[in-house]
Design goal:
single chain; alpha/beta; TIM Barrel; 2 domains; 8-stranded parallel beta barrel; two-stranded antiparallel ribbon; about 45% helix; binds manganese (II) ion
Length: about 400
């Protein structure tokens, strides 16, 4: 390789990428679809262990995805400590535990905000079970997303539902120990169409503030109204010390769960700029970067690899922003110059930089190509007989 001229911002970008960790979700590896059709793919995992195997492949090719998020009950096993050991042997660790209180018939009118106290007790018991799982897996984060809400004005008391939510969250928060954290995710609409009980970052933020230090907001990039300025939310939450995590994905219309950076790479860049500005790339701040996606028409493992690469590239561009020039332009009130600084970074082709870093880390410079050449896809398609029938829960 030829000697490069001194490049302090390139060095900063490489240093930032070396510590960037992106968690992949177990459900991205399984069959998924829309409410119209699940298109089964050959070779999808039949068990949690096979999902872990796939996550380990993504990590081995990207060097940046060392953990896999679990979804309970989809990934329920008898012995979580054993599962954690299996993951470690495969080269990854078990990450965030995602609770699921949205699939039982009992939850038709809500889970923790249901008007029926018996249903609320059942939902809370599941959330507490998830903390038990975390105790065994050593997971730090419990991610809570509630499908709770109403479809019609007058269906239930909006204010009472907030009280019920607060009560359940407090009980879960109380149960956390050590370095465990509660991440509260929000979503504008769907499945409820009139009110969601946690519709936006403000609602999540307010509940997290009331709970305490270890409750943080999870920003799912697909869960906003069209046109929402997500980077503003990121800047605000980081400043308040309340940004816990990202669920990365991209959307064209609503919660499309497409590959992050596919629909709007410029938005992803702007988000990563604010993450960097707020210090969120420092692992010590505890901001978790996760993918929350479904690969319905594309292959799943390369879909995850491509997504990790997209986050890396957006982060590299954000780290190339000449912060000093930006501050000077901002101080001088030079609007065009300030915008130029950001656009210069965004318009830089960072693929050579990222590829060079991979080679330095002993990785193939082209992870998707390396996956195609590995023969892994053919092998799992052959070996995982019956995987086509596996659903969310495998
Ligand atoms: Mn999510």
């Amino acid at each position: 390789m030829t000697a490069l001229a001194p490049d302090p911002r390139g060095d900063t970008a490489r240093a930032g990428l070396r510590t960037l960790r992106i968690e992949t979700p177990s459900w991205a590896y399984g069959n998924s679809g829309t409410r119209f059709k699940v298109f089964a793919q050959a070779g999808v995992p039949r068990t949690v262990r096979e999902k872990i195997d796939d996550a380990a492949v993504v990590h081995s090719l990207t060097g940046s995805a060392p953990s896999i998020a679990l979804h309970i009950p989809w990934d329920r096993v008898d012995d979580y400590a054993d599962l954690a050991r299996y993951a470690e042997a495969a080269g990854v660790r078990l990450g965030t535990v995602n609770a699921n209180v949205f699939q039982d018939d009992d939850y038709k009118l809500g889970s923790v905000t249901n008007p029926d106290p018996a249903v609320r007790r059942k939902a809370l018991a599941h959330l507490l079970e998830c903390v038990d799982v975390m105790d065994e897996t050593g997971s730090r984060d419990l991610k809570l997303w509630f499908s709770d809400g109403t479809n019609y004005p007058g269906q239930d008391d909006i204010r009472d539902r907030q009280d019920r939510l607060a009560e359940a969250l407090a009980a879960v928060y109380e149960r956390l120990s050590g370095d465990q954290r509660l991440l509260l995710e929000y979503k504008l609409f769907e499945p409820a169409f009139y009110t969601m009980d946690v519709p936006d970052w403000g609602t999540s933020f307010a509940h997290c503030l009331e709970l305490g230090e270890r409750a943080k907001v999870c920003v799912d990039t697909g869960h906003h109204a069209p046109g929402t300025n997500i980077e503003f939310i990121v800047a605000f939450l980081l400043r308040a010390g309340k940004l816990g995590a990202f669920d990365f994905n991209s959307r064209f219309y609503a919660d499309d769960d497409l590959m992050v950076g596919a629909a709007d790479p410029f938005q992803l860049f702007r988000i990563m700029c604010e993450v960097d500005r707020g210090g969120g790339l420092d692992p010590a701040t505890g901001v978790a970067f996760m993918l929350d996606q479904c690969h319905n028409v594309e292959q799943k493992i390369p879909g995850q690899i491509r997504s990790v690469c997209n986050v890396q590239e957006a982060t590299a561009k954000a780290l190339l922003v000449d912060r000093e020039a930006l501050r000077t332009a901002q101080r001088d009130g030079d609007v065009i110059a300030a915008n130029d600084v950001l656009m210069d970074a965004y318009n830089t082709d960072v693929r050579p930089l990222v590829a060079e870093l991979r080679v330095e880390q002993g990785l193939d410079p082209d992870p998707v190509g390396a996956y195609r050449r590995s023969g892994y896809q053919d092998r799992i398609a052959r070996e995982r007989v019956g995987g086509e029938q596996a659903g969310w829960g495998a």
